[in-house]
Every structure is written in structure tokens, then in C-alpha cells.
Amino acid sequence: MRGTRIGTGASLVAAVAACGLAFAPAAAAAPGAATVNADCGSWGGGDATLTATQSGTSATITINTSAVTAPLAISRDSLVSQLTLVKAGGGTTLFKGTKNPAMATGDALEVGPLSGTVASGDSLEAFGGTLKVTAFGFITITCTAKGPQSPGPFVFD
């Protein structure tokens, strides 16, 4: 009986391989996180962390910063956010969404994951792009990077 189980398992592996099915890990952006020094006008400024994930051509970016704080209590998934990143070689890629945790007045700003579409080899940088966050339909915070992100641009698989 034991030999039959091994033989069946080996046959299944061979059948999967013969059909050309592969179990590949999800693609990833490198680096997975980067820091940028942002200027958000009268709302403040300072370091922000951008965290990137990727699954095929879909990618997300989450932004966290204690340099900008919630002006009022903010409900979960109530901010409208758009992040424009600059492509190496020209053009931009837009990440957008309405995902955010609930925040009390004075809490550090966190938005995302914001969704966007990427191609293999895309190299995306916050410097030269913008982050626009709208709360309550009329308060808009616009942030720009003061310099290149560190340790470098996001490069997608």
C-alpha cells in the first residue's frame, strides 16, 4: 500500500509538470519599502514610508508618515487618495484608492493600500510625483517629495 501512495504522488507531480503548470512565487517590488522626505505645504512635512507589494501586473502602495497628522477624526476607508509615481524613462503611474485605517485627531497619516497597474521592469520613483489626499470631500492635502526616495526607486518584476 505504501508503494502505491508514492507512485500515485509521483504520477501526479509528473502530470502537473507535463501540463506545464508551475507554482511560482508572486512577483515583488524591490525594495519592498522606501523612505522619502515630503513637503505637504501648510499640513507639514518630513519622512514618509512607502511600502510596495505586487501580484502580477497589480501593485499596491501604502504610505505612513507621522510628519502629517489627521486634522480631525477620520473614519476607516473614507480618504480619497491618489499617488503619482514617476517612471524611469518618462511617464507616470497612478495609484489610487479609498483605503485607510480609522484615525483620531492628531494620529499619524496612513493611506493605502492604493492600487495601480505595473509592467515587468517598471522603475517608479516618488520624487517628481505627488500624493493627494482628500478628507470630507473638501480638505485636500498635497505632498511632494523633496528628493529621491531611499534606498531607491521601486522596480517591479
Structure write-up:
This protein has 157 residues and is mainly beta. 11% of the residues lie in helices and 50% in strands. The protein has 1 helix and 10 strands. The protein has one helix spanning 2-18, and strands at 29-30, 33-39, 45-55, 58-69, 80-87, 92-97, 108-117, 123-135, 139-145, 154-156. Strands 1, 2, 3, 4, 5, 6, 7, 8, 9 and 10 form a 10-stranded antiparallel beta sheet that branches. A hairpin with a 4-residue loop joins strand 5 (80-87) and strand 6 (92-97). The model is unreliable at 1-26 (pLDDT under 50).
- Secondary structure: number of strands: 10
Unreliable sequence segments: 1-26
Average pLDDT for all residues: 85
SSE string? HEEEEEEEEEE
Measured distance between first and last alpha carbons: 45 Å
List the helices and strands and how they pair.
Blueprint: H1 2-18, E1 29-30, E2 33-39, E3 45-55, E4 58-69, E5 80-87, E6 92-97, E7 108-117, E8 123-135, E9 139-145, E10 154-156
Antiparallel strand pairs: 1-10, 2-3, 2-9, 3-4, 4-7, 5-6, 5-8, 8-9, 8-10
Question: Keywords, please?
Answer:
157 residues, 10 strands, 10-stranded antiparallel sheet, globular, mainly beta, disordered N terminus, 50% strand
Please outline what is shown here.
With 157 residues, the chain is mainly beta. It has one helix and ten strands.
